[in-house]
């Protein structure tokens, strides 16, 4: 009895291949589970770091006193606007991280349940659903990182010509937390991309052309 | 003689399956070629539209006369800075579009040559190379769009609180060309994502588990 549950005549290469595939399957399932758990943890961490970025509240208080009367207060308004923009961009990242964390948690549960049952994913509809979900999540994460990392560059470099301040010099805590959040989300998105590759493998192998090892060789002999 | 080039005993289901796979393969190859050509054309169009956005030059001339003496000239400086930022972001999109156009052109040539030879992709190393390249291009395109579309929103909405102008009201031609370029790049990235799915299919089917239709059924009989 082979791993595939099909009786195979002795001497057939498929037996060896079945054992090899079984090993690959196990490792892949474990890798997938670890990656999905990592996405959940990292995305949640990123979300917490960005949401609890309290130092920003100080700037909002300062801004309320600032008026368009002199250059200095204008700079404060610009600083507020800049931080507000950073927060707005981070909002997209926060929402994406939240969705990624919940999605990956549910998928992790599915992985564990699948492992406990011990069966390989054979249902094409389910495989398509998982593949589509993973692809969407992976591209969404990468897009959120791309949008957020730009604001990080402005925060560090500033815009001298416009007297846009280097927010990171003025508000170190805000910047460090933000950077931590973005770094965490970045790692989560890398893990998500790898997961999407695994789910693509799980789906498309079901369409195996079997051209690599002609299945009916024994019959032809 | 089946499509796979392997003699198959009569009555085996693999014959029917081989014919079906042949049809799917042909359609898939055609779809892939069309998508890759679309990416080349759309990415190139996007690049041209953004690079030839000449109206910006006028703003640079105005900006040179502007100084920090009054509010009005400051607004002009901000306008310049804003447009400069838009251009900077678009630069990433331009570079990405250029790479995508050249990459897809080369891949299209490979597709045509493969079709002329008439063989299916069986080389795992080549399939891995194509898969990796396509994945990288797809994620890069989506990231570039995410970064650029944000600048588009600022251009249309403006930032009233900071007196950031609605660039689209002031410089219609600049905005229309830019929007055209981003839209073109967006379509190219959608096509690129679909291409990456096809190359994932082409790669991972080579690892087909063949659990759906036990290959040695005839032997067992």
UniProtKB/TrEMBL annotation, chains A, B:
<feature type="transmembrane region" description="Helical">
    <location>
        <begin position="179"/>
        <end position="204"/>
    </location>
</feature>
<feature type="transmembrane region" description="Helical">
    <location>
        <begin position="136"/>
        <end position="158"/>
    </location>
</feature>
<feature type="domain" description="Casparian strip membrane protein">
    <location>
        <begin position="26"/>
        <end position="79"/>
    </location>
</feature>
<keyword id="KW-1003">Cell membrane</keyword>
<feature type="transmembrane region" description="Helical">
    <location>
        <begin position="91"/>
        <end position="116"/>
    </location>
</feature>
<feature type="domain" description="Casparian strip membrane protein">
    <location>
        <begin position="92"/>
        <end position="191"/>
    </location>
</feature>
<protein>
    <recommendedName>
        <fullName>CASP-like protein</fullName>
    </recommendedName>
</protein>
<feature type="transmembrane region" description="Helical">
    <location>
        <begin position="33"/>
        <end position="52"/>
    </location>
</feature>
<keyword id="KW-1133">Transmembrane helix</keyword>
<dbReference type="InterPro" id="IPR006459">
    <property type="entry name" value="CASP/CASPL"/>
</dbReference>
<comment type="subunit">
    <text>Homodimer and heterodimers.</text>
</comment>
<dbReference type="Pfam" id="PF04535">
    <property type="entry name" value="CASP_dom"/>
</dbReference>
<comment type="similarity">
    <text>Belongs to the Casparian strip membrane proteins (CASP) family.</text>
</comment>
<keyword id="KW-0472">Membrane</keyword>
<dbReference type="InterPro" id="IPR006702">
    <property type="entry name" value="CASP_dom"/>
</dbReference>
<keyword id="KW-0812">Transmembrane</keyword>
């Amino acid at each position: 009895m082979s791993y595939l549950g099909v009786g195979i005549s002795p001497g057939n290469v498929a037996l060896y291949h079945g054992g090899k595939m079984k090993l690959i399957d196990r490792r892949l399932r474990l890798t997938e589970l670890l990656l999905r758990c990592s996405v959940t943890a990292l995305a949640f961490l990123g979300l917490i770091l960005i949401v609890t970025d309290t130092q920003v509240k100080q700037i909002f208080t300062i801004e309320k006193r600032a008026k368009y009367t002199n250059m200095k207060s204008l700079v404060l308004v610009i600083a507020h606007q800049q931080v507000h923009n950073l927060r707005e961009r981070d909002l997209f990242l926060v929402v994406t991280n939240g969705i990624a964390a919940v999605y990956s948690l549910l998928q992790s549960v599915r992985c564990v349940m699948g492992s406990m049952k011990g069966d390989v994913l054979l249902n094409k509809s389910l495989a398509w659903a998982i593949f589509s979900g993973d692809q969407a999540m992976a591209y969404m994460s990468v897009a959120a990182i791309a949008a957020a990392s730009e604001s990080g560059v402005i925060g560090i470099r500033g815009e001298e010509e416009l007297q846009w301040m280097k927010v990171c010099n003025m508000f170190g805590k805000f910047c460090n937390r933000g950077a931590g959040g973005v770094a965490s989300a970045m790692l989560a998105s890398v893990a998500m991309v790898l997961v999407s590759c695994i789910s693509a493998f799980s789906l498309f192998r079901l369409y195996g052309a079997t051209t690599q090892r002609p299945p009916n060789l024994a019959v032809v002999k």
